[in-house]
Amino acid sequence: MKEVTDFLKGLHENNDRDWFNAHKGEYKLALACFNGAVEKIIAGICSFDDSIGAPDVKDCTYRIYRDIRFSADKSPYKTYFSAFIAPKGKCGGYGGYYIHISPSGDNILDGSYLITGIHMPEPKVLQSIREEIEDNGEGIEQAIARTDGFVLSRWAELKRTPRGFAPGTPYDYMLRLKDLCIERKIDLGFIHADDFAERAVAAFATTKPFLDIVNRAVKYAYEEMM
Asked: How far is 199 from 221, CA to CA, in rounded Å?
């Protein structure tokens, strides 16, 4: 995976089309390396979580090209590689397992991470997740505590308890979240290890009980919307 981090570091320092085109061969090598790792990770996750199905790498990874039409930042490329492995695919609306490789950081995450959960769920799904927190906050905390070094993500949260939920409960801090994810930061030693994919799978396996709770709430919301 050193090919990946070396390329991304160069791209972070030279985020323009001329540099990218001059280093297209390095990009293709880095992409092939990342996709190979993701393929192994997909197979590993499918061995303990059959809700994933058997997705192709292309159904889990994201393009490096940024959509700059409505952005003040006109940098043409993302400075990270990422993949999301989830039931019904990366756009299926369910929580899943996310890999984010960015040695130099970006505007969303500072560095590289393994993340499990759901990001930016639609309102009715978020409502269902909050009801799950209200009913089973202790179970969620226990599931997080049993993971291999994952902690609750606090990227975006309300200043107050959302309407319809009692403030001041032990799980108020989770009710105020706009996403429900857990994260584990990984360093270059982890990423460059020969067994990177196997280590990522082993770490993700410890998060499955947490994801099962999240996706139970997601599934209930979608069933209610039918």
From this structure: 33
What does the DSSP assignment read for 55-72? --GGGTB--SB---TT-S
- pLDDT at residue 73, rounded to an integer: 79
Q: 3-class DSSP state for residue 85?
A: strand
Q: How far apart are CA 182 and CA 119, in angstroms?
A: 10
Structure tokens at 88: 């019904």
How far is residue 23's CA from residue 207's CA, in Å, rounded to a whole number?
A: 37
Q: Which residues of the chain have pLDDT under 50?
A: 107
Check residue 67 and give its pLDDT.
84
What lies within 8 Å, CB to CB, of 32 at 6+ separation is none
Number of other residues whose CB lies within 10 A of the CB of residue 5: 20
Alpha carbon distance 153, 181 (integer Å): 5
**How far, in Å, CA of 196 to CA of 94, rounded?**
25
The closest alpha carbon to 101, from 93, 116, 112, belongs to: 112
Closest of 47, 44, 222 to residue 128, by C-alpha: 222
pLDDT number for residue 225: 85
70-94 per-position pLDDT tens digit: 778 789 999 999 999 999 999 999 9
